[in-house]
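Re: the pair you flagged

First of the two:
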Amino acid sequence: MGLDTPAVRSLEESGLEHRMIQTDVPSSPEESARLQGIDLGRLLRTIVVRRGGNDYVFVLVPGGRQIDWPKLRAVLGTRRLALPDKDEAKEATGYDRGAITPFGSATPWPVVADAAVASAGVVAIGAGARGANFHVDAAELLRVLDAQVADVTKPG
């Protein structure tokens, strides 16, 4: 039996074609990309961002990039955003920091994907456990997640 997380069950129910990759727990995004045999820019980090009281959004950020806060605030039409602490993030998503993914989240928060994701080809996104990722087609991923695509990052 393989990995069984809410993310695995959710992705399988979605019908999204994927390949599960499990590695040792990496110490950095660069190491994760290397262990998975992909370019850093194809490794997606899922960042949970608080818009207000009990109101969150997932932001898909390609490896080597970081959130551009003014751009994200403009896209979301808000003046204030915050990163929740690890306990609040776990409560909002059901996942520990480092394993957060939109798939199987405790609450299905909206997803914003950086514009670079749309043309990335095959990308890696978390499978709900450290060292576990799904490799999926980026365009299909965005469709299944009903993601809003916008320029929300800058080189990191």
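Second of the two:
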Amino acid sequence: MNKKNDEIMKNSAEISSVAKRIVEVLTSFGVAAEVFDVCEGPTVMRVKIMLSPGAMYSQVMELRENLRRALEVKSLRIEAPIPGEEYVGIEVPKQEHDKVSFVDTVLPAVSQCIIQRDKFNTLPIVIGKGVNDKTILSDLASLPHLIVGGASGQGKSEFLHTLICGLIASRSPDDVQFLITDSKRDEYSQYKGLPHLIEPVITDSSRIISALHWAVAETEKRLKMFAKASVRNIADFNSRGSMPQGYIFDDEWLDESDESLPKGVPYIVIVIDDFSGLMENVRGEIEQNITLLTGRARVAGIHLVLVTQRSDADVLPETILFNVPGRIAFKTISSSDSESILDDTGAEDLIGKGDCLFRRKDGIICRAQAPYIGDAEIEAIIAEVTRKWGDRCFE
């Protein structure tokens, strides 16, 4: 065991006990290994194991249940190897979990993007705190679409609230606007009157279909604008000049002169909650419009977030999955559900309560504890943005 790890273990009896027990179990089954490093996240500790020459990653994977029983934990996840490294990562739940709050995690991250004028995080979203306790930040504009799946009560709705509140706290209605569907009729009621809404929260399935039709038409309209301005995408189009307040979502101004073009257009985020319910009831029109949007809307600055409790092929067909590389899986009931969301297993071994796996657009999967935001915080943020841009609100 190296000197660095000796120093880490002196600081935590729990870490020392877990690491020692892992090595003992592996050794007892003929897998020679030593602890290279240990890091702690809010929910789990990850023990990095260096295997001796001749030992195979598959041997460690086969001992997962033995390790779980020896450590007396309900779940245990193994990365063999850790992406980009030669070590095996064994993630073990901590006895006490640290809180990851919206105020302490999301707000500092999105505020820093504003201060630094970070062009790589146009629509910054905080996934959570990773196993190394560092904030995992992504950009919805580059994902460019996102599926959020997992069993009921595992943290999907809380994550969506942090995503929306992080964006409205850091971006004006001229930067980003939302279409939010709430078929359950109670999850997003707090956002009534939010100035970033294109229209009030949509609760009727027929209106959801109409909104998707509008989004497809808006995509086509924007692509025509970009062609007329001789630019390739929304970023190039908006860099032509500062955006005036009050972009009009119709075709009245789109005449033959260059002067008819607006200086810029806002990004649009479409949040569809209970996507599985919509696919059950109005599959044909929903699938057709979602497929069109996921395939063409990225350059237009229109991005989808699909939230689903079910994740089988009827809900997430290949036509949709192919164009949605961004995936977040909260705890799933089975490995097959995890496979549907992430194209990999592992979400079935999560702890729950905001513990999630994020598949980046490059395919690498990382674990995070998603932030939590309470109703009082949501209301405070909405009150503040309404104070700034109240004249843009729907009644």
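Residues 242-249, 252-257 have pLDDT under 50 and may be disordered.

-B.
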